[in-house]
Specification:
Elements (H helix, E strand, L loop, with lengths): L1 H61 L5 H22 L3 H31 L1 H8 L3 H87 L3 E6 L4 E4 L1 H7 L3 H4 L4 H4 L1 E4 L9 H8 L3 E2 L4 E4 L5 E12 L5 E10 L1 H45 L6 H29 L11 E2 H11 L1 H7 L2 E4 L4 E2 L3 H17 L7 E8 L3 E7 L31 H11 L4 E6 L3 E9 L4 H7 L1
Parallel strand pairs: 9-11
Antiparallel strand pairs: 1-2, 1-7, 3-5, 4-6, 5-6, 6-7, 8-10, 11-12, 12-14, 13-14
Length: about 575
């Protein structure tokens, strides 16, 4: 890389110097051409002026008109010569100024010559000689010679300067070109050696890659999961024995076939075709997994429940050149899940029936103790009233405990349909309606930000929010409760927060409070210690987390996260 950089810099330097040398030569040539034009025009002007002056003198001395031929010829040429000199000098301001100073002197000299000729022709020699003897013509001619010489001198000096610049530039170019060529020749020799070594290394790497490819093929053929690889056109390039068994296609028939023809998958419930994760992996450039309840239809028409994931295959430059699909038969897991689901449903039915059977005598006991308390009011002493109060309180606590245990047991069934989405706002509205009397009693203020749509059952969201907001209403301080519900999103999950201004929690208990029956405030606050355990069970059922940050005396903020499911990107856009 360093040699390439130096080579590029050398070539750029030589190119720059070549361009500069060419420009300097062009400037020197232009300057030489312009100076030559000025020099020739100035010389022609002096020569013509001398011819005019010679003709004038001959005519003055002899009176013979033939001597005026050179004079008349000079008069005819002066205007053209001045025009050439003016055009040549216009490109150089300092020369243009001298030309402007020269032109009046020329015109004055020509006028002086014309006046003496006219005097000789009309009045004879003496008046003409007297005009000549004033030396005005000599002064004009001296001025013309001085200005012309100055213009020619300036032009010559500029030619010398720019010629020296061009020569210096050419010398510099020769030095740099020679040195650069030697350096580039050295780099070329080094590059040749490097290329030869690279060719040898490539040959070695090719043999290694061939061995690695064979090893990879053997590995993929030996693993217990089905593997299918495709090219960028979604045509199969590899299928291992397990993949052949599950799809019902042998390797010979599958190679080159479109993925969707060999790997046919549908939704178990809707029977709608499911897009191949391999194709989506190539489109997104990320690992893509199947949603739940996906069925593979084999070549023979047999249906097999599977789960899988697709991943893009990239070349060393990072470009996607295909995809690999890994999938497995989960029929046994389906049967186990079905048995577990049936067992849970039986357990839930048992818990519901047991709760009903427990509630019936407890409700009767509660009613009778309430009636007994009313009838004996004022007829029994304080100790017996206190004992009766303990009985009523105990019955209420047992009833509350039965309800909370039932809610904890019913916090199940976290499976979702592929497109099942629930607005958190709907669940929050239900909670606020359920807690209306408690909100009014405590003069609480409940506020909420814009909340997203998430992959969860609404009943579970109601349980979550009702437990958290209900706790905020129960464990408030001396001022009315202020509860705020908000939400943020990360790369993989939604994080919902419920903050309050209540009594807060000691840091040592921030983990303990999520355990069943863990209460921090004794009997002075209602509760069974099951609510937060239920929240944790619900959140964990969706693959999320729940935690709390708190400062005693200032309030608490409970957080729970819900991972994105299929359509998560849409959810984020709607938040």
């Amino acid at each position: 890389m360093a040699m390439l950089t130096v080579s590029v810099l050398l070539v750029a330097l030589m190119a720059g110097l070549s361009w500069k040398n060419g420009r300097d030569n062009a400037i020197a040539y232009d300057e030489s051409s312009l100076s030559q034009r000025i020099d020739e025009a100035a010389e022609a002007l002096l020569s013509t002026m001398k011819d005019a002056e010679t003709g004038q003198r001959g005519y003055l001395l002899t009176g013979d008109e033939q001597y005026l031929d050179s004079y008349n010829s000079a008069v005819a040429q002066i205007s053209s010569i001045l025009g050439k000199l003016r055009d040549a000098a216009a490109a150089r301001p300092h020369q243009a100024d001298r030309e402007k100073a020269l032109e009046p002197a020329v015109l004055a000299k020509m006028s002086e010559l014309a006046a003496t000729v006219d005097l000789r022709r009309s009045q004879g020699l003496p008046p003409a000689l007297r005009a000549v003897e004033t030396d005005a013509g000599k002064r004009y001619m001296d001025d013309i010679r001085t200005q012309s010489a100055a213009m020619r001198d300036i032009a010559a000096r500029r030619v010398a300067v720019f010629s020296a610049i061009a020569e210096t530039s050419a010398g510099r170019l020769r030095i740099v070109s020679t040195a650069g060529s030697l350096i580039l020749l050295g780099f070329l020799a080094i590059s040749a050696v490097t290329v030869l070594r690279g060719l040898a290394l490539r040959e070695d790497l090719y043999h290694r890659a061939t061995s690695d490819a064979e090893l990879l093929s053997v590995t993929l053929s030996s693993i217990g999961d089905a593997v299918i690889a495709t090219d960028t056109e979604s045509r199969i390039t590899f299928i291992n024995p397990v993949g052949q068994d599950l799809t019902g296609w042998n390797e010979k028939d599958a190679i080159g076939m479109p993925m969707e023809q060999v790997f046919r998958i549908v939704n178990e419930a809707t029977r709608a075709p499911v897009p191949s994760p391999a194709e989506r992996a190539m489109q997104t450039g990320t690992i893509v997994g199947l949603a739940n309840h996906t069925i593979l239809i084999t070549r023979q028409g047999k249906e097999i429940p599977i789960d899988d994931s697709g991943s893009p295959i990239r070349n060393p430059e990072g470009a996607v050149v295909g995809a690999i699909l890994v999938f497995r038969d989960i029929s046994e897991r389906h049967r186990s899940d079905a048995q577990l689901k049936a067992s849970n449903e039986q357990l839930q039915q048992f818990v519901t029936a047991a709760a009903h059977d427990l509630r019936a005598p407890l409700n009767s006991t509660s009613v009778y103790t309430e009636l007994l308390a009313r009838r004996l009011a004022g007829q029994i002493d304080a100790e017996r009233e206190q004992i009766l109060g303990y009985v009523q309180s105990g019955v209420r606590r047992i009833l509350r405990l039965v309800d909370d245990l039932l809610a904890y047991a019913q916090a199940t069934h976290f499976e979702l349909e592929d497109d099942k989405q629930t607005p958190i706002e709907n669940a929050l509205n239900t909670v606020l309606e359920n807690l209306r009397s408690e909100i009014e009693r405590t003069a609480a203020t409940i506020t909420a930000e814009k909340l997203p749509v998430v992959a969860a059952h609404e009943s579970h969201l109601v349980q979550l929010l009702q437990n958290l907001i209900g706790n905020a209403l129960k464990y408030h301080g001396d001022i009315p409760p202020q509860v705020r519900v908000s939400c943020a999103n990360t790369e993989s999950e939604w994080v919902v927060s419920v903050s309050d201004n209540g009594v807060g929690i000691q840091p040592v208990y921030t983990q303990e409070i999520f355990k069943p029956f863990k209460r921090l405030h004794g009997d002075d606050r209602p509760g069974s210690g099951i609510g937060l355990a239920t929240c944790q069970k619900i959140v964990a059922g969706y693959g999320g987390r729940i935690w709390v940050t708190s400062e005693p005396g200032k309030g608490s903020t409970f957080f729970f996260s819900l991972p994105y499911r299929e359509g998560g990107a849409t959810n984020r856009a709607r938040a």
